[in-house]
Amino acid sequence: MDSRKLLVDTMSELMWERGYSDTSPRDVRERSGVGQGSMYHHFPTKRDLALAALERNVDDLVPAGSELDGPGDPMARIEAYLMRPRDVLKGCKVGRMTQDPQVREDPALLAPVSRAFAQAHANLVGVLREAIAARELRDDLNPEQLAHTLMAVLQGGYVLAIAQQDPGPFDDARAGAIDLLRAASPSVLNQERN
User: Fold this and answer.
1) Is residue 120 part of a domain?
2) How far apart are CA 128 and CA 74, in angstroms?
3) pLDDT at position 97, please?
4) What Pfam family does this protein match (any one) (predicted)?
5) Among 2, 117, 139, which residue's Cα sits nearest to residue 54?
6) For residue 120, what are the domain limits?
7) CB atoms < 10 A from the CB of 140, how many?
8) 174 in Cβ contact with 157 (< 8 Å)
């Protein structure tokens, strides 16, 4: 692996573990084994390295969301997305950055985070619209609001799991979201009326 990629991968992991504020260039050099000269050749500042690492983290998040696009049953794709394996006790690589004051206060560092959530939202809205069109969800549901709800369930699930050091609350939250989606099926509504 070349030194640039090693630095970005290492910064990505450290930011996920500690956040931007609590990660120093020295931490990155020590963990990566890359020398100071090489580090500053590729990244003149910590912020430059952090931007590259954030872009990598966004690339990791967005393809996962793109699994919502594609062939097959829309509800099955939504359920697969919600239930896919995640490193719950470490939290979301991108969502974690919203808790770091230095990231929140720097528009350049916050931009990739904001862009990642906007793309994830758009992916969810798209598949929710497909589910409504396929009559898997009621047509009176607002896909924009529902996409925000599902994102909040995942992000909030991470917070609850980390606070309790137990993945159970995360698993419960996403299973509950699936139960609510299934309850919003027109066929369920018709069964209740009969």
Assistant:
1) yes
2) 7
3) 92
4) TetR_N
5) 117
6) 57-193
7) 9
8) yes
Task: Return the DSSP state at 139.
Answer: T
Question: What are 154's two structure tokens?
Answer: 């995942």
Asked if 74 and 131 count as a contact pair (C-beta separation under 8 A), the reply is yes
Residue 133 pLDDT > 50: yes
Tokens in use for 169?
A: 């609350």
3 contact partners, CB below 8 Å, separation of at least 6:
32, 34, 38, 39, 42
**Which domain CATH number covers 162?**
1.10.357.10
The whole-number average pLDDT for the span 112-127 is 94
Structure tokens that stand for 31 in this block: 């963990």
Q: Is 144 a domain residue?
A: yes
Domain assignment present for 27: no
pLDDT-derived band of residue 194, with 50, 70 and 90 as boundaries? very low
Assess if residue 131 is contained within a domain: yes
Interhelix angle 74-83/143-164, rounded to 10 degrees, is 20
Total number of domains in the chain: 1
* Cα–Cα distance measured from residue 108 to residue 103, given in angstroms and rounded to the nearest whole number: 8
Copy the structure tokens of residue 88.
């719950």
- Confidence class of residue 137 from pLDDT cuts 50, 70 and 90? very high
pLDDT tens profile 74-106: 999 999 999 999 999 999 999 999 999 999 999
Enter the pTM of the model. Answer: 0.87
In this prediction, residue 86 carries a pLDDT of 92
